[in-house]
Structures are given as C-alpha cells and as structure tokens.
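Hey, I was hoping to borrow your eyes for a little while. A protein chain has come my way and I'm curious about its shape. Take your time with it, there's no hurry, and the full record follows here:
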Amino acid sequence: MNEEIRQELIKMSEPELAAFQGNLIPGAGNILGIRLPALRKYAKTLCKEYGEQALCGEDVYYEETMLRGFIIGYLKLPVQQRLELIRSFVPLIDNWAVCDSFCSTIKPKKDEQEEYFALARSYSSSEKEFEQRFSAVMLMKFIDDEHISETLTLLSQTDTTAYYSSMAVAWALAECCIKYPSESAGYFSEQYFDSITLRRAGQKLRDSRRSAEHKKKK
C-alpha cells in the first residue's frame, strides 16, 4: 500500500484491539488494530478514489493485506481480471482471518459461477495450508444442487494434515451435511476424511443444531 493509505490506517488503529487480535489470530504480524467494518468502509472509499491503483505497493501491516483483499473483492472488474488479482493475493494469506474475510468478500455473479468453482478446485490439491483453507472456504459457496457432489469429492481430496486446512474442511463438510444430508451421509466416514477432521465436523454440526434450537426458543 502507498504511504498515504498507510498513514490513514495508522490513524484508525486501536492499540487495545491490536493486542486482542494478536492473541486471536496466530500468524498475523504487525497488527494495528482496526475494526473490520471500518476497514471495509475504507476499502470501498479507496475503490472509488483510486480504483486498481489502490493495490500498488507492498504491505507492511496485517490490515494492509486485509484491505488489499477487500479492494479486490469490491472493485468493479471483468471476471478474468478479478480472478487474476485473486490468484496474486492467495500467496499473501498466512492466517485464518485474512483467508475467511477475503473469501466472504468475493461474491460470484450467477454467470461467473463456473469460473469461481474452477478457481476453488485449482487450490484443493495444493500442499500449502492456507491455499487448502482458501479452497475449502471458497467451496462453501458451491453447496448447491449443481455442485454438491463435486464439492464433497474435492473436500475429501484436500490434505487436512495442517490445523487450519482441517478446520476449514470440517466446517465445509458440516455445512454440506446441514444443507444436503442424504448426499453427504456417505462421506462422513474415515474412508474419505481423517478421524480428527470428522470429529471437528461433528462438533460443528452439534454447534449448528444448538444454535438453531436456541433461535427457535426465542
């Protein structure tokens, strides 16, 4: 990011929040402590003021990398141009918060679904932990009639040795089970997933059901 953007981020920083986030997000360094809604709002402002030029320069702070991801998601771009920027961003992901916030910002249009599904598929065979997580989190956008079978297959083929990839695959598997229980039932087995990931998926399912029951009681 350029120095003007960096100085604006420093003005927005909260030292106490930075200390809290440092404990919550292993792997994240140089945290300023900026609330996500404020960071998202600033990203939208930069998109209007600078366009793609806002992405110039290298990142020093955690929030700069987060901001870069938001800008990539918010810019009005042709699908291939955005996909190119996404591919350039994925190697910068080194913690769960950047990964998940970035993925949540990407909103494929109906006529772009297959391009984004191919993108998620391309990272499912990666040997890198956060590329594996990126793939699993992106695949949750494709728990639908057209993709459920291949989504489950890709999740089952993802290496879940590393903690953050296992957690993401467990999360995605639980979502598949909630939305497509009959299609997912056969995959909930050590034939497809390691026991640790299955246990984590089971916990996600239980948490989801408890949350649903709690909402019904209100």
About this structure: The mean pLDDT is 94. Residues 195-217 form the longest helix (23 residues). The CA atoms of residues 27 and 94 lie 6 Å apart. The radius of gyration is 18 Å.
